[in-house]
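Mods, move this if it's the wrong board.
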Amino acid sequence: MIEGKTILITGVTGQVAFPVAARLAGANRVLALGRFGGKGDLERVRAIGAEPRYCDIAAGDFAKVPSDPDFVLHFAVAKSGDNNFNADLRMNAEGVGLLMAHCRQAKAFLHCSSTGVYRGGAGPVSEESPLADHHQYLLPTYSICKIAAEAVVRMSARSLGLPTTIARLAVPYGAGGGWPWFHLMMMKNGAPIPLHPAGLNHFPLLHEDDYTRQVEALLGMASVPATLVNWAGSEPTTIEAWCKELGALTGFEPKFETTERALQPLHIDTTRLEAVAGPSRVHWRDGLRQMVEVRNPELLARG
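Not the wrong board. Structure tokens:
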């Protein structure tokens, strides 16, 4: 566990970064960067022992951000639903370049990317696999902006000499929710869950207990040029299987709808991650039960 360090974390109010910040804040000085426009954002961040610092990444406003932290964990992301590529590229690509330039004295920089940069389909996807606009039907700007951001991060790591890890995150879930939780809400409301017709819909779940534990190993992988690594669960999982398990827990029957506009399956190769961080430890069935127990315990009574 990292101790006694100054750590900057962006996107702390989001699902993924919040438990990371909570885990690190007890033994480190954690500075949470953001604009904190949501109701209760400041109070929520302070409650875990982190220090809120105003920062507009897209504008390059780092007046309240130290330039020499030990580590920077960049989780902030813009995902507009209206095809606003200019705004999303400004935030996701330009913004991360500005942040890295400001924090060039850091010991290591962790950039959270996405397995949504890959081309979906058959076979395990490694860090060298082809890239594509995987999320085009769900979030039109997302994959393209993630790929653009990775390019900026790679260039910045080299030009600044800043040791960097680009971690391509798969399907995070836990007490903060995640894709399986959205599927549970769809099941509760009787809405059909879209599936791609290309066989079983493989997507690896990664519980928050695992990904928060793995942050230290990811920082340890930081290098110049930047290290690329898939950040996903070790166990093969599918939408069909986790929805069936959620149905067993709650009594809700999943309804599926096959469509070409669903996300293509992604079976992720985690060999590189496991070599330094070990395999994930939380079995996906245990993680799903824990998610429901925390977020919707009343639904378990139906099982």
